Amino acid sequence: MTTRYLKKASRTAATDEEETRHVVAAMLREIEVGGEPTVRKYAERFDKWTGEIIVPEVDILAAEQKLTTQVKEDIRFSHEQVRGFAEAQARSMQEFSLELRPGLTVGQRLVPVEVAGCYVPGGRFAHIASAIMSVTTAKVAGVSQVIACSPSHREGGIHPAILYALKLCGADSILTLGGVQAVASLAFGLFTGKPADIIVGPGNRYVAEAKRLLFGRIGLDVFAGPTEILVIADDSADAELVASDLVGQAEHGVDSPAILVTTSPALAGRVLALVPTLTASLPAGNAAAEAWRDCGEVIVVDAREEAAVVSDRYAPEHLEVHARDLEWWLHRLRNYGSLFLGEETTVAFGDKASGPNHILPTKGAARYTGGLSVGKFLKTLTWQRMTTRATSEIAEVTARLSRIEGMEAHARTADDRLRKYFPGKNFHTAP
Description:
- By secondary structure, the chain is of the alpha/beta class.
- Helix content is 46%, strand content 17%.
- The protein folds into 3 domains: 17-65 and 93-221, 3-Layer(aba) Sandwich (Rossmann fold), CATH 3.40.50.1980; 226-370, Rossmann fold, CATH 3.40.50; 387-421, no CATH class.
- The protein has helices spanning 17-34, 36-47, 57-65, 69-92, 128-141, 160-169, 179-188, 205-214, 239-250, 265-280, 288-295, 304-314, 326-332, 347-352, 388-405, 408-421; strands spanning 3-7, 96-101, 104-112, 115-119, 145-150, 173-176, 198-200, 219-220, 229-233, 258-262, 296-301, 318-322, 338-341, 378-386.
- The strands form 3 sheets. It has a 6-stranded mixed sheet with strand order 1-11-10-9-12-13, sandwiched between helices. Strands 6-5-4-7-8 form a 5-stranded parallel sheet, sandwiched between helices. A 3-stranded antiparallel sheet has the order 2-3-14.
- It starts with a strand and ends in a 10-residue tail after the last helix.
């Protein structure tokens, strides 16, 4: 098998990582010490926002009045789709109890976290769908307090459609904050007095790095990087749709990878010719052309099995398949954030309104995790209960294993119970 790169990326997800880490670490330290006044300073500096941080109810109601009926209907449609999928996820998870041996009962509980922080990008684009994806899923999971943050949109406060979506989906508090200062406020409980147990939602590299540095102190959805798309296509694919979908994701940012893996050299050549034309037709300031120049790749392989291997190695955030025998691809592919089968679907559908969550792993993290789900907000807690009858059997094994490990104090906790519950009886507790 041979793999040929007709176009190779000159920029990777690791570019500028060190500089980003240094900036974010310094900001987090400053905010933890300086608290809310420091956050306000950063809000004014980066977002030109000097108004109230916690959005008052009257502003949320005013935002709704600014929206057309069609916009509100579309937001409600997307919310219903996402909620329906999340509810199905919740039904697939179960608590249980089981008697493993006579007298030994074990089980698990599914307990939601108490406070979830949802970050919603909103500076350059109005990421309405991210509000729906994060808050809706948290609420379906049973989170009692959902605190949402979104930056001022073009210096005018949170975009009205984002505010409407956040309220519709059940956010309990909404903060006009973006960037590192938003993540820090969620983690430290600034303005609300309720530190988040988990922070979810997409964001730029500074937001992603802030979440990463705070991991452990708080939980998080995924280790996120720039948005990615990989398209697998064979000679049956429509080159215009493939090119359109690559460009559609490249507009997220100048560092967004867009990759084509194909078994058809002719298709590869056609896509290479089409993409520059498509990016040139976009409005001024769109990032797609630069993203394609620096992060785009076109790879030609000999067979579909090789295409699957290449795709699994990338483990892309979004994976589209424009090829024959979609069932084969569904059962063969293993590493991706979300899979889009056939030309009839596209990443944009999943991003906005089809139902499955669009907050997904990037930078190869799909090798070991999926995206945001109801399960991310649930703690799987185990429990056990034992009768004295079960103790006699478990204690002997525990004592012997503990002594083999050299952990005498562990062994004696078992010995003590055997002596209490079965006085005068001899047990085999030495290895």
